[in-house]
Amino acid sequence: MSDATAEAPGGATAVQAPTPTHCPYCALQCGMSLRPTGDPALPAEVVERTDFPVNRGALCGKGRTAPSVLSSRVRLTEPLVRRPDTGALAPATWEEALAAVADGLRRARADHGADAVGVFGGGGLTNEKAYTLGKFARIVLGTSQIDYNGRFCMSSAAAAGGRAFGLDRGLPFPLEDIPKTGCVILVGSNLAETMPPALRYLTELRANGGKLIVIDPRRTRTAEQADLHLAPRPGTDLALALGMLHLVIAEGRVDEEFVAGRTEGWEAARAATMSHWPEQVERITGVSVPRLREAVAMFCDADGGTFPGTGMVLTARGPEQQSKGTDTVGAWINLCLATGRAGRPYSGYGCLTGQGNGQGGREHGQKADQLPGYRKLDDPAARAHVAEVWGVPPESLPGPGRSAYELLDALGGDVRALLLMGSNPVVSAPAAAHVEDRIRSLDFLAVADVVLSETAQLADVVLPVTQWAEETGTMTNLEGRVLLRRRALTPPPGVRSDLEVLRALAGLLDAGREKGFPTDPEEVFDELRRASSGGPADYAGISYRRIEEERGVFWPCPAEDHTGTPRLFLDRFATPDGRARFVPVVHRPAAEETDADYPVVLTTGRVVSQYQSGAQTRRVDELNAAAPGPFVELHPRLAERLGVAEGEPLAVVSRRGRAVAPARITTAIRADTVFMPFHWYGEGRANTLVNPALDPVSRMPEFKVCAVRLERVPEPS
Q1: Which of 114, 117, 290, 715 has fewest C-beta within 10 Å?
Q2: Stretches in the chain below the pLDDT threshold 70
Q3: How many whole angstroms separate alpha carbon 474 and alpha carbon 537?
Q4: Is the dihedral of CA 474, 477, 482, 487 positive or negative?
Q5: Which residues make Cβ contacts (< 8 Å) with residue 113, sequence separation at least 6?
Q6: Largest pairwise CA distance in the chain
Q7: How far apart are CA 351 and CA 361, in angstroms?
Q8: Closest CA to 617 of 682, 679, 684, 681
Q9: Distance (Å, rounded) from C-alpha 605 to C-alpha 686?
Q10: CA angle, corner 433, sides to 430 and 438, nearest 5?
Q11: What are the CA-CA distances from residue 122 to residues 64, 131, 555, 674 (Å)?
């Protein structure tokens, strides 16, 4: 009998009830239900789930078509091993594949030391898998060289939030608070395309009388919803925030009582801000002084909305994916603190996390410098606590390692072998052609994934693992709400879970060690709860039962009788003295500015019908029909100057390489800027062009701004 049916009383056949779960894509983690179909070509169908408060049943096209990637036609169903005689990947048994992985990792470690083995994770892994991967790296491999692609997501916001508030959680309030505030400043986010179900929060905001300011160099579908759209030159968001704060100070709009009672460091931040006078900011950003004044008045005088006098600043990858992303986010936080729009109901700074588990993935050990519970790896007390849970001496844990791009850059050099789970850096990393070269130079590469991604195609061993609908596990969405995804389908024969993979490898690399690597997700989560207990991201009071009963539990939740924390900082900030910290910041240019050879600015982003590197969405016919390939968006004046027509192939050249894609001509972008989506491999790979210059604090690469030139592509002769 198929998974789609069950035996009913009297021998009748009944349709199986749908299983409540969550979308596999972005950090909204929209609620949905899945009903098995019994058809290997499309194993499940999506059923609307209206009880989950984040999306109330609404789904974007990616969510609706998510079961398509479960199809046996597009996913991996057997291990692959590269054969030395042909140089090609070929089917293998699990025993052969796992032995090859263990041998490759063991040889690198024996020949070059523990840190010659790297581990690269993903922001789509469940909390249980992220936790286990970090544990595996540190106590089985003994390597410090672990990081994950979430470093490319919101690490700058995390760093800025941590130093200002003492704690980083994407949103310090639930999404339901957004429509009730007086004014939202949305910086560098195109919610209408990246998180379509979330756009309704902004629509409701305006329906309630609140105001929306969108800051983006493109007039996106989101910007079209705004009361005020500011279009600064890419890479100048820091100057824009400082210019607005300068006006707040000059116009006497500082909330002196809040600043005195709940913050520290104002005088130094104020002095740094005052050197950014509005006329100077206009020259840097291209945003006129009157528009700056209008934005300040709209934010500070917000007398509409459900709760007048409140306001929020929400950032996304636009200001964060810069070599000064931490300071840029810090400037927007300073604006919130100076105006008293933080630590109060319906006010505050928040980050719109991108990846499905970008929040939880970094909280529990995938990042190079962190242990479970958001503990710092170089903190002796944190090491002692986690080591006790793991049953190892604290001194056996390696120290902090390289950040994501630095780790990828070290491949084939100091790092000789790599275990990669749930990521596709050949498409998603900055300077992608260089990263691809580094991956090709490895002595050994093992990839665990659900599809044969462009990175997996370079591997020595590919391990087919279960997908979201075929496994149980928790995710933490952008609100800090811990959610439960229940297994709805039996995985195909020949597919194993990441937890099973890591347990098997632990035993092969260190006999007996597999006992510390359970494969039951709930057992792993219970261990994670103990490891996180007392840490900044405390999950100790969260259980599978509570998550189901309460439709998610907000961390921190230190005890089972604790209600969870939907709203942070209302009484005190998470610093030792309970006060938020102003951090003095000043504008500085992008790491690479335009010049005579590269006179145009390139910025990158997403489109509504594709997701991240496209490894999954590019396998869905409906999504490909809507977004079949890359393009170069440019202004008509720039197109006229180049003599380029709509749809004509256009080469975009940076100091790192060349990409070619059809021209898309629109007045929705600045005339000095071009835009490319980054979802595709091949000649249209946008991340080939991107500058890997890193933020000194967050180690975030500068995806959002680099200098390029445009060249017409000659007609084939």
Answers
A1: 715
A2: 1-15, 717
A3: 14
A4: negative
A5: none
A6: 81
A7: 15
A8: 679
A9: 9
A10: 95
A11: 23, 12, 21, 29
Total number of residues shown for the chain: 717
Cα→Cα distances 614→391, 447, 466, 647, Å: 40, 17, 18, 22
Residue given tokens 């060249």 in the structure block: 711
The 10s digit of each residue's pLDDT in 318-362 is 999 999 999 999 999 999 999 999 999 999 999 999 899 999 988
Beta strand pairing call for 80-82 and 461-464: antiparallel
Helix (H, G, I), strand (E, B) or coil at 323: coil
CA distance linking residue 259 with residue 263, whole number of Å? 5
Cis before 556? omega within 30:
yes
pTM: 0.95
pLDDT score recorded for residue 15: 55
Q: What are phi and psi of 229, to 5 degrees?
A: -115, 120
Helices (H) and strands (E) in the chain, counts: 23, 32
Lateral strand order in the sheet of 348-351: 228-230, 211-215, 183-187, 312-315, 348-351
| Cβ atoms 368, 337 nearer than 8 A | no
pLDDT recorded at residue 362:
86
Point out which residues pair with 540 in neighbouring strands. Answer: none
Instruction: Give the 3-state DSSP-derived string for 180-231, with helices as H, strands as E and coil as C.
Output: HCCEEEEECCCHHHHCHHHHHHHHHHHHCCCEEEEECCECCCCHHHCCEEEC
Q: Is 29 helix (H, G, I), strand (E, B) or coil?
A: coil
SS3 sequence of 233-294: CCCCHHHHHHHHHHHHHHCCCCCHHHHHHHEECHHHHHHHHCCCCHHHHHHHHCCCHHHHHH
Question: Is residue 707 helix, strand or coil?
Answer: strand
Q: What separation in angstroms does the CA of 278 have from each of 248, 268, 270, 658?
A: 11, 19, 15, 37
Structure tokens at 666: 């629109």
Dist CA 356 CA 530 (whole Å): 24
> Residue 301 burial (CB < 10 Å; 0-12/13-18/19+)?
middle
Judge whether 3 and 40 are in contact, CB under 8 Å.
no
Tell me the C-alpha to C-alpha distance, in Å, between residue 353 and each of 26, 28, 194, 368, 539: 8, 8, 11, 19, 19
Q: Which two tokens stand for residue 551?
A: 């439709």
Q: Is 169 in contact with 152 (CB distance < 8 Å)? A: no
According to DSSP, the residues that pair with 448 across neighbouring strands are: 421, 463
Give ∠ CA 28-32-34 in degrees, rounded to 5.
Answer: 140
Q: Which residue has the tokens 């299983």?
A: 19
Residue 682 neighbours by CB under 8 Å, 6+ apart: none
| Buried b or exposed e, range 684-708, using 16+ CB within 10 angstroms | bbbbbbbbbbbbebbbbbbbbbbbb
* Residues in Cβ contact with 636 at an 8 Å cutoff, skipping those fewer than 6 apart: 665, 666, 667
